[in-house]
Amino acid sequence: MRDLWLAEAERCLDYDWPALKVTDRLDAQQTGRLTVASDPIYDRRTALGKLVIGECLEGEGRFLGQIVNGIMAICEETVWGGPEAFPLTGEHEVQLLSGETAAMLAWAHYLLGERFDAVSIHIGRRSKREVRTRVLDPYVDRDDYWWMGFMPGTRVNNWNPWCNLSCLTGFLLLEDDAAVRTRGIRKIMKSLDRFLLTHPADGCCDEGPMYWEHSGGALFDVLELLHAASGGEIDIYGERIVRDIGSYLYKVHIGGIYYANFADGDAKVAHYPDVIYGYGTRIHDPRLQALGAATPTIIRDYPYWFPLPRFVRSLFQERPSDAKPPYIRDAWLEQTQVMTARETEGAVEGLFTAAKGGNNLESHNHNDVGSFIVYADGLPVLIDLGTELYTAKTFSPQRYEIWTTQSAYHNLPTVRGVQQHVGGEFRASNVVYECAGDVSHLSMDIAGAYPPEAGIVSWHRAVALGRSGRAVVEIADDFKLNEPTRDIVYTLMTPCRPVERAPGTILLEYRPGSFAEIEYDKERLSFSQETIPVVDARLRRNWGDTVYRILLSEKSAVSEGRRMLRVAIAASAKEGVR
Hints:
By secondary structure, the protein is an alpha+beta fold. 36% of the residues lie in helices and 23% in strands. It has helices at 2-11, 22-31, 35-58, 64-75, 96-119, 121-141, 159-173, 178-198, 209-212, 216-229, 240-251, 273-282, 286-294, 308-316, 537-543, 573-577, and strands at 253-255, 258-259, 330-333, 338-342, 351-356, 359-360, 372-376, 379-382, 413-415, 423-427, 429-436, 439-445, 456-466, 472-485, 488-494, 498-502, 505-511, 514-519, 525-533, 546-554, 558-569. It is elongated.
């Protein structure tokens, strides 16, 4: 690890601290494309973090000059805001980027402050002044940031623990006035209470497992700081909701870096092992510890947040080297209505499925009530796409014009050309989960997720994993419409090129020589497919260059019926290609 981090730091010795151009921000505002303006912002902070770790490991001053350059360059930024913000002096907001920046400077000062003072006492003074002015003072003075949770009727999300973590870091490491520090910390604790009180009681991060690192993971980081700063007096790890927020992560783990993703989250998630292992240790959960110990430390190779304290903590945390993830067989998250099930307890081999009910006003929502995914041997077969790189449109009134948010690009039916609608009233009903013997089963009526013009009277969908004999995932749709129509299409999304071996059977090669097969009702449904080139960098990281949309369409007009899909692993490569 020392060699790895020194190599990363050495790459930054000639870093030129790129200018943050107003024209790039204007382009982001006009086009909605954020990355040209945001990438240099993230790159600056990542370079600073790597240089700090390198200097801490080596201690010879080789990186110190570049660290000072980075600190002063960041302090000179007019605002610590995202690319959508126009850089006007004095317009300081406490949000993700400003908070993360404050925390980065606070940790740099905590780790190397004496060495900075040997260069010039003005380095530390400038850092403290900027952190106080831009983050700590506004935090103390204002109660109207939505993510604080103080405004009536507000349900917070990952922003709450994430921003509170950054602010707590600043108050603990840089604030010299004890009264101000105490006032800020008390406010942080009250705000965190709002996060815990409005969080789904089953512990599920309805934003998806990718966001857990800044939701549940940030909660752990906050609790660790409070625990350390109070000498262990502040300790709520025994609370049920805190334990459930932690255990959620292994309930949605598929294998390797794949997690059961719904909404905006990625399927491939490079989590931080120190957070997972440390959380498991605090709540005395050996399964969470095992997942953390089996998770490798990965430095993301694309512009992203750089969690300096997590990487430093990981260097000092002793974790078992021979651990493997728990691979639990079944999980049911009752409030958010998410089921996960795998073929064999403790093994990544075999089938894995996840399905959801819920509603279409969840955090980072997609219109996906009743959707499901299927993996084979830990690899994707039928998928939830996640989302593209964020743009201004992602969080605008035009969000559901984006194809990846629409139900027609999830594993769901489209009736009369009508898709699911957004809103809390568009939800699943009569949701029932059962796990008996060799079968894990989730059923629901998803008719309420569609508007009246779809003409759906009822649409009972059941997703089940049966383990008796040859394991199979079955999807059963029992529907009734107000009048007959032929315009019913069942979508299945996959990164595997579909091949119709024979009418009624589709093959998906999920790795060379290994096939999953889908059986459908060839008498009533016809098969077609769309090839979708993947041009978005974020989707490409998850799925490669191409995804496919399988379309199973009704051959004749119907007003009611029962349709079954069965997904299984082909017994052999020979069976797959015959």
